[in-house]
Amino acid sequence: MYSKKHKQTAQLIIITAFVLALTFLLLATLLNIVIYSENQASRGVAVADQAAFETHTDVNKSVKGLLKEDNFNNYSRSYDERQNSVTRGIEHIFNVNKIKETKNQRLYNGTITETENGTRIIQDSNRNFTNQYGTENWIVVDSTENTRNMTQTVERNSLHQAPNKTVWSVPGYMIFNSMFRTEFDTSSGTWVVYFVEDVSTNTIYLRTENPSGSFYNDCAISSSQATVNYSEQTVGNQDCPALDFVTELNNPYQIRYINSDEVEGQYHIHTSAELGSGVPDYQYNSVSSQDSPYAVRSIYSVEYKQLYISEEVEYDVSVYVAPNQLENESV
């Protein structure tokens, strides 16, 4: 009797163990399925994110290209004509991407929220930096909130000569009165960039003073010609600490050229100020003649929203397009 009961107990234990093993196997299988599904879902989101990013990048690149193409052609266009041309072009870019994403079972929609007028100021022939009348000290831009693609290409031997840096860089040295300089007049004072040829080293030398009149920074390049790029803070494609102040400019500001007969070369400024308003049109030659210097109406910037929706991700973003703008870190 005891032996039979013991045998039944043993069989029950074996059956129970088998059921438990089967249960664990089933749970493990279900867990693997869940993990696999989560991995597949994560991969799907990553793929969708990448697709959304590529669409965003492609549209942004196309809008930049369109803006440049429109601004660098048809110089006689009015602001209304430019607005209409740019708007039609961007809406076409949106429609092309909408059709493409619809084929991929994704939703895309783009909407222009703002287009900002501006002015391109151009001197594309080698001459001094005076205005159209030969005035040496003059206002280039009367008042602007933003500036981009600001460059000056200067000839070293056209600059005022100085014996050496240690002599002329002393504060109050009278040679400052004769140097070509670019001034940025803000509500907190004036930033001044001096240009000179250091004859002891045959370099183009830049020195910047802050609104209090104190030395800010400097840089030099050994070259017969160099492009000063305020947007990238470089001279001759080399970093120039003397130009780092552009990140500290308070808006709005005025741009002036002083002693502009002490320099020769070319320059370009794209400002968010309108011609005839923030940009004094009387300083420039007519755009039809294209005699330097002249000014052209432009579209300074574009802002748009784009919405991208797929089964895995929703992407809604506002985009501001103003290539190579002077970045003010305080705003």
Topology, please?
Layout: H1 2-71, H2 79-103, E1 107-128, E2 138-144, E3 147-155, E4 161-162, H3 165-168, E5 180-186, E6 189-198, E7 203-209, E8 215-221, E9 225-229, E10 234-235, E11 238-239, E12 253-258, E13 264-271, E14 294-309, E15 314-321
Parallel strand pairs: 4-6
Antiparallel strand pairs: 1-13, 1-14, 2-12, 3-9, 3-13, 5-6, 5-12, 6-7, 7-8, 9-10, 10-11, 14-15
Helix pairs in contact: 1-2
The biggest beta sheet is recorded as:
8 strands, antiparallel
SSE string, helix = H, strand = E?
A: HHEEEEHEEEEEEEEEEE
Percent range of helical residues: 25-40%
Tally the helices. Answer: 3
Shape: elongated
> What structural class is derived from the secondary structure elements?
alpha+beta
Q: Span between N and C termini?
A: 94 Å
Q: Give the domain tally.
A: 1
Radius of gyration: 32 Å
* Mean pLDDT over the full residue set: 84
Sheet-strand content, in percent, reads 35-45%
| β-strand number | 15
The strands making up the biggest β-sheet line up spatially as 11-10-9-3-13-1-14-15
- Low-confidence spans: 29-47
